[in-house]
Amino acid sequence: MSRPLEGITVLDMSRVLAGPWAGQLFADLGARVIKIEHPERGDDTRGWGPPWLAEADEAERVAAYFLCANRGKQSLAVDVASDRGQTLIRRLAAGADIVLENFKVGGLAKYGLDYASLKALNPRLIGCSITGFGQDGPYAHRAGYDFMIQAMGGLMSIGGEPDGMPMKTGVAITDVMTGLYATIGVLAALHERDRTGQGRHVDVALLDVQVAALANQALNALVSGVSPERHGNAHPNIVPYQAFACADGHLVLTVGNDSQFERLAELLGQPQWASDPAYATNAARVGNRADLVPLIQSIFLTRGRDEWLAELEARGIPAGPINTIAEVFDDPQVKYRGMQRSLKRGELDVPQVACPLHFDSEPAMSEVAPPRLGQDSDAILAEMGLTAEDIERLRREGVVR
Asked: How crowded is residue 280: how many other Cβ atoms within 10 Å of its Cβ?
């Protein structure tokens, strides 16, 4: 099956998660993605273990963290701080469609590899710079990390139990969302280029993304003038929409409208709740959650989780178990959709989580495993016209690996 971005070349000069996440998505969509890595250490996340893939094999050992965001890419290990390395990057950029980078603001300008310099060589080039705080403003010079941005961007203030410490999410979700926003911005610029013939520079900041992704909670604050409180596993605007303990575990109940609540009330043996002015509408339930939620909780404790889930499903009341990640990959729907994959790298099986996109019922995902450091350097350099002697000289000088 042809993929939407076949024929597009991406120069991925990013590292860690937000930029590589965007680069991996471009690869899944069919683009050729050349990952530029430091010739000695590579992407920082190669060493962010344990856990490790192939821990006993020093040549193959790589952190699971790296494997989550780098499939489908070629690895060119080149020292961008060297004059010869910079020349190689310029030559690649001259023939590329997209360049991704997450250097500090101004970090590439000293090498002559900033977007303005590269666009002078290739007016059709689309650049995407991912930083913590954007290309301008009082914080532009600062480094940004997901955890810190979750705190500064308000996400932690609404996570955690009301009487506990504010909590981050269990995944670097701001990085992931930033990678998605970066992808959207670049795809928009690609579409525009078809009309204008000119590239664009896309500026994506983790803090901007986190603020934008506050979604309803941001508007709750802007409309009311009051910062939202932490509700733990409950919803600020919908009741009952939270986790409940059962006799042998926990489930999440997500009652999204009044008709679902009416069916819930009947299931719980309390049909009068659906006509009680205190509970009949969602607004009333939100106002009276302190009374209603303990009543629901006491009933859920009388039976087992799976028994309740079967009853809820039979009545069309949305609910689900709180799965461990191991249980997620054992879930029948997750299995059916093929979300757990394995890609071959030589004799090694590399676990992967599939791209969630499908086109015409076919999954969009690269079949190429995340690369070894510098595994494609020789092939890419030869394609650029360098001879074996040229490549060996660059290797001796430490410019490439």
From this structure: 16
Selection from 3, 23, 27 nearest residue 14 by Cα? 23
Q: Which residue has the tokens 């959207």?
A: 184
175 is catalytic: yes
pLDDT value at residue 94? 97
281-313 burial, b if ≥16 CB within 10 A, otherwise e?
Answer: ebebbeeebeebbeebeebbeeeebeebbeebe
Residue 26: its pLDDT value, please?
Answer: 98
Q: Give the burial class of 43: count Cβ atoms within 10 A of its Cβ; 0-12 exposed, 13-18 middle, 19 or more buried.
A: buried
> Encoding tokens for residue 329?
């990959």
Mean pLDDT by 10 residues, the chain (401 residues): 94 98 98 97 96 88 97 98 97 98 96 97 98 97 96 97 95 98 98 98 98 97 96 94 96 97 98 97 97 98 97 97 96 97 93 96 95 96 96 95 88
Place of tokens 């803090």: 207
Catalytic residue of the set 114, 146, 175, 203 = 175
Contact 77, 399 (CB under 8 A): no
Instruction: Identify whether 51 is preceded by a cis peptide bond (ω within 30 of 0).
Output: yes
